[in-house]
Amino acid sequence: MTGAIPALSFRRRSLLAALCLGAASALISAPALARGPDGIADVAEKVIDAVVNISTTQTVEAKGGSEGHRVIPQLPPGSPFEEFFDDFFKNRRGGKDGGLQPHKTNSLGSGFIVDPAGIVVTNNHVIADSDEINVILNDGIKVKAEIVGVDKKTDLAVLKFKPPHPLTAVKFGDSDKLRLGEWVVAIGNPFSLGGTVTAGIVSARNRDINNGPYDSYIQTDAAINRGNSGGPLFNLDGEVVGVNTLIISPSGGSIGIGFAVPSKTVAGVVDQLRQFGELRRGWLGVRIQQVTDEIADSLNIKPARGALVAGVEDKGPAKPAGIEPGDVIIAFDGKDIKEPKDLSRIVADTAVGKTVNVMIIRKGKQETKKVTLGRLDDSDKATPVSVKTKPDSDDKPVTQKALGLDLAALSKDLRTRYKIKDSVKGVIITDVDADSDAAEKRLSAGDVIVEVAQEAVSSASDIRKRIDQLKKDGKKAVLLMVSNGTGELRFVALSLK
Fold first, then answer.
1. Residue 125 known to be catalytic
2. pLDDT in tens, 7-49
3. Which residue among the candidates 86, 115, 125, 495 is catalytic per the annotation?
4. Is 229 a catalytic residue?
5. Do 282-375 and 400-495 fold alike per CATH?
6. 364 Cβ neighbours under 8 A, 6+ residues apart
7. Does 69 qualify as catalytic in the annotation?
8. pLDDT tens, 366-395?
9. Residue 224 near residue 213, CB atoms below 8 Å
10. What pairs with residue 421 in β-bridges?
11. Choosing from 55, 216, 229, 483, which is the catalytic residue?
12. What is the pTM of this model?
């Protein structure tokens, strides 16, 4: 038979098994280690009853017309099949005219009990837009649940239900103590099979996959598939160290790259959702950007680290504390800031109203500022985009060239052409050399240079003087503070070569 594996005789199978066992014994003294530690079975037995399936129902509006991919046959009046097709399409599709009716869809995810009173943690995307949510316990009992609160930014949700009997709950462990290579156990509902246990190791920590503003995932090779979302990731002490949330897979199945929200994040979110029904995140009131090697060199920061303050909210907590654009935040509340996302996560996790020390570098010197945090407005608001228009006049302003830029004084005419607010001060860019470093850094006509090397400029000659001085000082790059038409700032480092 083509493609079939031929069967071996009992004698040959026995001999082959003996040879394999002998070879394995010779190669490794403890073959059980290849299967993982013996404690996995103890963990699974201890926590399995705390892991639940999440069943959701959602009403979906059906699409009509050709999009439905159903065509109603046109039958002559009096045809013996006319009554049959009328009944079929009326019952299945909502009427004789073939109009499509809304229908219900079901899906299954995973979750886990954190309080015997009936509190369950899962992913927000598991229950989003659902009309009905049910929790299915490990013994098969199905109970209706309701939402306590959700947090879209971390993709977490808390549910509650009335316990039909005493429940098993699990506790959170410390995800910060996880080590690379440490064994972890995932339990969930892959492909709607019901409670399933898989094991693997911690492949990476603090993984940022650009999925959200507070990415800091645990990466694991424990098999995680569709339906595992919202399920727990356990350490070998039976503590929850993460919530399985994402996988990377071209096929939809596990290829050994799964991600879990760390328990340190989950525990804080769950506490706030249970207490307030919403998240109350700390707010510093700054816009930040990456400190690149070029920017670090311009600011005399070695090694490159921290979060560069590109803008300060007028009504934010940072402004009265004395934090300014151009400052580099290197520590917040005693925690080192290596990159901007570190600051975003730490500020968000800090209690609203708490006064903290913020360490900055300003013009090469370290300073400490005290800031009392406000509360972040988590509502999704559209960010206004400044519109840059081409000159509507043939009158060309007097310009000077520097760093591949055509620079001009900010006249009333140029403010009107490029929609520059009166509050924006500096030197306007009227053209950019397509082959320059400035073009690569996305500078464009209508941008306004406010500062050069942390000194304010008001004319093109000011900029040229600063550049000439930096070259004499042996600098390799120059740091520009650039504003758009609405006054939003950012920093750009350009090569002086």
1. yes
2. 434 344 443 344 343 434 444 444 444 456 878 999 999 999 9
3. 125
4. yes
5. yes
6. 299, 300
7. no
8. 999 999 999 988 654 433 334 344 444 445
9. no
10. none
11. 229
12. 0.68
